[in-house]
Amino acid sequence: MSQLSHSLILCGFPSSGKSRIGRRAARILGVPFVDTDEYLNMQHHQTVQELYQADPQRFRDLEHEAACAVSAFAPCVISTGGGMLTFERNADVLRSAGWILLIDRPFPLIWTSLQRHPERPLIRGKSMEDVREMYNRRMEIYQRVCDLVIPNDQSPEACARLVVSSIPSLPAVFPRRLQNS
Fold first, then answer.
1. Which of 8, 43, 73, 176 falls between 20 and 30 A from 79, CA-CA?
2. Count of domains forming the chain
3. Residue 174 falls inside a structural domain
4. What's the predicted TM-score (pTM) here?
5. What is the sign, positive or negative, of the torsion defined by CA atoms of 39, 44, 50, 51?
6. Is 125 helix (H, G, I), strand (E, B) or coil?
C-alpha cells in the first residue's frame, strides 16, 4: 500500500536530478512516476527541445496543459521540467495536487552535467556565468513555491530515500496550501 495521500512534485534546475531521484522514490513508494518532459514528448511526438525551439510561447502553453493533466493523476511522483514552476499558473495547478519539493543540487555539479549535453537550448551559446545567473534567478522562484527543500549532494538512491522519509513532515504543510487553492 502506498504511503502517499497526494502527489510529490519535484522541481529544480535542469540536471538537478529530478527524474533520476523521482523514479527511485516512486519505486520505493510503489507509486507511478511521471516526468512532464516525457509526457510532452509522448503527447506531441517531439522532444521538449524541438517543441521549445519551434515556438517558445506555444511550448509554455503545452507545458501548462501538461501540468493540468498530471495534477489530475492519482497520487504519484511527478518530475517537472526545469522551467515549469517558474510560471505561477503551473505552480498553482501543481500545488493543488500535492507537495512541491525542490531538488537542490549545487551549481558546480549541475554545470558539469549540463556540459555533457551541449545540444540543450538552456546552455547553447551561453557562458557558465550566464547559466549561473539563470540558476540563481530560478532558485529564488523554486524556493518561493516549494514546500520543502531536498538537498541533492549525495547518491540518487540516498536522495530518493530522503524524499520518502520527508513525507511524514509534509502533512502539516499541505493542508494549508490545499485550503488556499
1. 176
2. 1
3. no
4. 0.91
5. negative
6. coil
- Per-residue pLDDT for 180 more than 70? no
Alpha helices for 11-106 (secondary structure H): 18-29, 36-44, 48-54, 56-71, 88-95
In this structure, is residue 137 part of a structural domain? Answer: yes
Contact 51, 58 (CB under 8 A): yes
CATH at residue 44: 3.40.50.300
pLDDT tens, residue by residue, 100-133 = 999 999 999 999 999 998 777 778 888 999 999 9
- Residue 140 forms part of a structural domain: yes
Q: How many CB atoms lie within 10 A of CB 144?
A: 11
Report CA dihedral (36, 63, 99, 146) to the nearest 10 degrees: 120
Residue 175 included in any domain: no
Q: What are phi and psi of 34, to 5 degrees?
A: -130, 125
- Give alpha helix (H) positions in the chain: 18-29, 36-44, 48-54, 56-71, 88-95, 107-115, 128-145, 156-165, 174-180
**For residue 113, how many other CB atoms are within 10 A of its CB?**
14
CA dihedral 75→82→180→93, nearest 10 degrees, is -60
Picking from 146, 12, 137, the residue whose alpha carbon sits closest to that of residue 80 is: 12
